[in-house]
Amino acid sequence: xxxxxxxxxxxxxxxxxxxxxxxxxxxxxxxxxxxxxxxxxxxxxxxxxxxxxxxxxxxxxxxxxxxxxxxxxxxxxxxxxxxxxxxxxxxxxxxxxxxxxxxxxxxxxxxxxxxxxxxxxxxxxxxxxxxxxxxxxxxxxxxxxxxxxxxxxxxxxxxxxxxxxxxxxxxxxxxxxxxxxxxxxxxxxxxxxxxxxxxxxxxxxxxxxxxxxxxxxxxxxxxxxxxxxxxxxxxxxxxxxxxxxxxxxxxxxxxxxxxxxxxxxxxxxxxxxxxxxxxxxxxxxxxxxxxxxxxxxxxxxxxxxxxxxxxxxxxxxxxxxxxxxxxxxxxxxxxxxxxxxxxxxxxxxxxxxxxxxx
Length: 358
Fold this sequence. Notes:
Order of helices and strands: EHEEEEHEEHEHEHHEEHEEEEH
Strand content: 15-25%
Largest sheet: 8 strands, mixed
CATH architecture of the largest domain: 2-Layer Sandwich
Radius of gyration: 21 Å
CATH topology of the largest domain: Dihydrodipicolinate Reductase, domain 2
Number of helices: 8
Helix content: 25-40%
Number of domains: 2
Strand order of the largest sheet: 4-3-2-1-5-6-8-7
Number of strands: 15
Distance between the termini: 12 Å
Shape: globular
Structural class: alpha/beta
CATH superfamily of the largest domain: Dihydrodipicolinate Reductase, domain 2
């Protein structure tokens, strides 16, 4: 695939979502050549669909039915779709002949809800983490195969990064991961509900709980309340599926549990790893340290969910050895869930653009 007029024609579906806004911001930083950016909204009552030409100051407005999928190079899905836009219906109808590559950033974008059809190739879509794929390629897997590609969830990126780097130096026996999700995982409605809960509790008023189904402010939830409209259980299933597909048999697949934290942004992961032989914290730190993973020294403050906001790095606290299990390592890692997800999706598109299509 070659760029058109020094850039690619890109559509972002769900551009007004928290993830969509972050994705547009990353695209506009200029690291990925874009000649035309088309932003589409998925909720009723959203504004019309503007086409923004990033190489010039011109702009135009079109209707979704006027979008020709043959004129697109990439489409990013940054929100769950209750109904497919017309151009994605056309994309599905074209089958393997479709020119446009679709990158699913939410993991359930096609056929996630309502009666929208699933893409015929969706079950064959490969989960991608480009910076790990380059260092730890999977034999016999062609990264550019297929039309639909899934950008890994940020929690999957964090867990996979830590396990693959450790396994490259030390044989691993088992792993357990506890993932701590922020309200932003439920989109702007989740962030808004947490904010209202916090204010209402401090002013002794009734709290809203349409999204979380229970009090999240000043609390931790192991699952959502019965009246909640969030998708914590579905997210846990998706993370398990992505970890299974991406890690394969390269490392022990971790036992996984999710928790909902009363924070607005970022994701945290507590990872317990047992090695075949005892490993010093110095050796484990050396194995993890890289361009993307920053391990904090013990004489510095621990990394926090607030600190990592706006960065695509994975910050890891000082590694410790379990007091009762000399083969066991404890790791605490944090990352900006929105920025890491958007950056990985754009890097996935960049890794596909010059590769031959299957």
